[in-house]
Design a protein that fits this description.
The chain is mainly α. Helices cover 43% and strands 4% of the residues.
Length: 185
């Protein structure tokens, strides 16, 4: 069984897709069509921009989508998976690469999603951290959490059916920081 799994945000890098653009006419046409749909030359930012340019969600998401989909499309008959999947943003890439959604529709959806997420980031500035394997010289450090999670233990003296489940409580230390559980509801 062959599967293609498409990445989400965080897989971007300056120069992504440039080889495809320079060496494959199908890729070049798709990138140029993307520039038209988006109303700006995303290829300039992808190929020659800065890391900071590519960290902007409104650029990052369409860039990763384009790189993923165009790479799959340029594989031609070698792209014949039994299944496709994607992590977060990669779900859109998977749908388009598999032919379940048109390229243009997928790009417009990703651009709208990225714009909405960029706007949310500007209203509530934050960042994302990813723990990595520490080097032998240092261990990763993370800022202390701004909330103090606590739980109420279940009453174990009665049968499991009568015990009360734990209830998480989160103290919000800042009016700008959402409750850690509110995003999942």
């Amino acid at each position: 069984m062959k599967a293609f799994v498409f990445p989400g945000q965080g897989a971007q890098f300056v120069g992504m897709g440039k080889d495809l653009y320079d060496n494959n006419p199908v890729a070049r046409d798709m990138f140029e069509k993307a520039n038209e749909i988006l109303g700006f030359r995303i290829t300039d930012l992808m190929f020659n921009g800065t890391d900071e340019d590519l960290r902007q969600t409104s650029v990052t998401q369409p860039a990763i989508f384009l790189h993923s989909v165009i790479l799959a499309k340029t594989l031609g008959p070698d792209f014949n998976p039994d299944m496709v999947a994607g992590h977060s943003l990669g779900e859109f890439s998977a749908l388009v690469a598999a032919g379940a959604m048109a390229f243009e529709d997928g790009l417009r959806l990703v651009a709208a999603r990225a714009h909405a997420m960029q706007k949310a980031c500007e209203l509530n500035p934050s960042t994302m951290a990813a723990p990595t394997k520490p080097s032998s010289r240092s261990a990763p450090t993370f800022p202390a959490p701004s909330y103090a999670p606590t739980t109420t233990a279940p009453d174990r003296s009665s049968s499991p059916a009568k015990s009360k489940p734990s209830t998480p409580h989160v103290k919000n230390s800042s009016p700008q920081e959402p409750n850690a559980h509110s995003a999942s509801k």
